[in-house]
Every structure is written in C-alpha cells, then in structure tokens.
C-alpha cells in the first residue's frame, strides 16, 4: 500500500509531478489482468475501523496513493497501521487525537468520511472542510445535516468542521434522515455514525453503490445491525460497541470497467478477474450495445472479444445502478472512435468534462453544450502531449493513447497514481507499449514544438 521506501505511517513528501508517461499506440493487447481491491470501498472501510476498539485485518486493499493517505490520516489520530503481506492490520484501540490535520485531509477528500465514525466513537471530531476539486465544489452539507439530525452539534469555523455530542450524552441518537441526493459519502458517513447511535436510524434516498454495500458488510461483520444495504432505504439499529474483524474488500468495478474499455478501444481479447459482473451491469450493457462481445465463463471472470466496428450510443451518468460517472471519461475516449454521434450527459458532477479539451488535442471531434458532450466518431486519434486534469480523465487519456496513431505524452500522472493500482504495469503486461520517465528525458523538443503549435 505504501511506496517501498517508507514505513506504513508516512509517505515521502509530495514531489513536483515531473514524470510523463510515453504511450505508443495501436498495439493489440492480449491476456489476463488481475483486478485489485476497490479504491472507494477500501477508503470507506479504512475510515470505518475508527468505530472499532479492537484490531481489524483488511485484505485486498489496493496499493495506491489514496489508500496510503487515508492511512496517514488514521495514524495522525493515534491509530496503529501495519502492512503484513497483502493484509493491512489497523488497530484503532487508542484514539489519541480527535482533530485531523488540514494538510492530510486536504490531500485526500475522502478522508472527510472519518467524521462520522470518529464522532460516534469518541464523541467529538474536528475535520477540515474538504476543498473542491477539479470535478466540482464537492460540498458536505448532507453529511453535516445528517449528523445534526442525530443530535450532534456541528458548526464550521475557520475551514474546520467541529462536531460534538452535546452535554452528558455519550451517544448519537437514532434519527430518520432523507438525503436530497443519494450521496455515496454522506450515506457512508451517516451509516457509520448510526452503528453506535442509541436507537434506530433510517436513511432514505441512500446511495446504492456496491462500495456502500461493502462498507455495510464490513460494519455488520464487526457486529453492527444494518438492513437494506444496497437499496434506497438503510435501517441501522445502534449497538454500544463493535468488535474486531478480518475482512476482504470487493474487486474494483471501475478498474475492471476501465480495462474493458482498454480491450474494446484496442480491438483486443482480454480476460479480467476477479470481478463481480453484477456491479458492472450498466457498463457491460453499454459496451454490448456498442458491439463489444463480453462473456462470463465463470462467476467472477469476464472475457472480452475483439470487435471490429464500434457503434455510437448515448450515455447519461446516474447514481448506481445507473451508468457510473467514474466511467464517463473512459467511455468518451471509446466513443470518439465509434461510428456515428453520441451524447454524453454528466449529471452527477458539475465540472467533469475537462478531459474533452485534451481528447480534442488527439483529434477527437467533441462539442460541449452545458453538461452534455456531443461526440462524433473519427476514424483515428493521433498521439499528442496531453495533461490529465483528474483521476478518471487520466485513465481516459491512457486509453486514447493506446488507440492513437503515434506517441502520446501524458502529464499529471499523480492523478493516475492516486486511484489506480499499477494500471501501467497491468497494461504493459498484456502488450501495451508505454514507459514512464522524467519529463527531461522525454522528447522535450516535440513537447515544446507541439505546445507552440497548439497555442
Ligand atoms: C464518491 O464521491 C466517490 N469517491 C467518487 O469517486 C464518485 O464519483 C462519487 O461517489 C459518485 O459515485 C469515493 O467514494 C472516495 P457524492 P462522493 O457525495 O461521495 C453532491 C473516483 O473517481 N453532494 O455521491 O464525494 C456532490 O457535489 C471518485 O473514484 C452534495 O451536494 O460523491 C455531487 O454533485 C470521484 N452535498 C453529488 O452529490 C453533499 O453533502 C454526488 O456526490 C455530498 C454530495
């Protein structure tokens, strides 16, 4: 989980992002890719260990920067973390601090999810208000309002969210909460807080994402009483204390979806496992609509067969089980090479179309109207220097580079490293031609010349 040369409790100071990924396009891929544990389940489950006064052991936590950063946040609160082989031992018996440092929370938005378990466990939590990011303002008002409904006093001052259980009360109180939007993070924060509350909490219009369900299953393994996980209505009956557990994180459906698109965009034959195909319903259905052949030879295995022509299709991102916003950029790269025009509507985040400009540098024909991108397929993309703007945009640009004629130089790799467990290594292992190197050693003349041409 942590880079080789550091202990589990610290990461190297952030380095300026000077590396680039050189991708030589149009190689056919072939073979099997192992799918890692789900980033968005692992991060929530790591936060959930704060609920537990006994050690927990987690398996299948992906090795990526965001997981290491969540580990740093937990460590700053007094949690002991030790990696042994593929297992991550997290011991939250002694929480010595209830304020998470700004510089750590600021590097990982998801660490805000500690507010629910920390407040429920120790009665007080001070967590910096997470900033916005490239894809949107990312407010946390649903989290705050839900905790207030459960009896917490919550106020925001100097960029810090102060939450406390008032007076002599030791526990939050069960409440009936309706979420204006099925927010994944708010559902997770409030579900975790409710596990130790007094009485019953009902969360209506809850998020149904598989990562929410995995977190619920982890909490239930610790002794929490949760019903309706994976549905729109969650019912949590609070208990006084939870117990330690050994738990395995589900496979990452977005990594699997990204690799399915890698196979489709390079007209390759790929096998992926482990996967839970039910978590990829909308993604597989869209790929099949486009003409991609996908089989499920065994329960946790997917086989993708090369297909020659890809057909255009429309996409609207929605809360699960709708089409996932985290697959929107990757599909835009694929649809850029399909026959016909596609309309992609991004309805979850207000600013998640920033990869359009970079794909257009590679020859894609895309027009934006509000939150809708109109993609008209072109016969070929051409390699170019491009810059990633966020995590899934970086993946989309890798996929476009795999299909493009010539060389693509991708900068902004810190986005990729945050959210994918060695995506480069997995792609190279099945035949992708790519190499990561410092910007100095790559083709600077080409970079400068192209940039000048582009201005
Ligand atoms: C989670 O983010 C994921 N991150 C995101 O994955 C994912 O895109 C998103 O859910 C939607 O599926 C993690 O799980 C760590 P939301 P989250 O709360 O919880 C608005 C990736 O690429 N909202 O479901 O932050 C919000 O602005 C990342 O892996 C409020 O208005 O997403 C957004 O428009 C990106 N108030 C919408 O809800 C709130 O209090 C959905 O956000 C909370 C959210």
Key structural traits:
2 domains, four-stranded mixed beta sheet, 455 residues, globular, single chain, disordered C terminus, alpha+beta, binds ligand EPZ, UDP-n-acetylglucosamine1-carboxyvinyl-transferase, Chain, disordered N terminus
Care to describe what's here?
- Helix 1 (39-48) packs parallel to helix 7 and helix 12 (391-403) packs across helix 13 (413-419).
- The strands form six sheets. The protein has a four-stranded mixed sheet. The protein has a four-stranded mixed sheet with strand order 2-14-16-15.
- 31% of the residues lie in helices and 22% in strands.
- It is an alpha+beta fold and 455 residues long.
- The model is unreliable at 1-9 and 445-455 (pLDDT under 50).
Helix content: 25-40%
The coarse silhouette is: globular
Rg from alpha-carbon coordinates: 22 Å
Oligomer: single chain
CATH superfamily of the largest domain: Enolpyruvate transferase domain
Number of helices: 15
- The percent range for strand residues is 15-25%
> CATH fold name of the largest domain, please?
UDP-n-acetylglucosamine1-carboxyvinyl-transferase, Chain
Whole-number mean pLDDT:
92
CATH class of the largest domain: Alpha Beta
Largest sheet: 4 strands, mixed
Bound molecules: ligand EPZ
Main structural class: alpha+beta
Query: What's the β-strand tally?
Result: 23
Low-confidence stretches: 1-9, 445-455
* CATH structural architecture of the largest domain: Alpha-beta prism
Which strand order spans the largest sheet, edge to edge or round the barrel?
A: 21-22-1-23
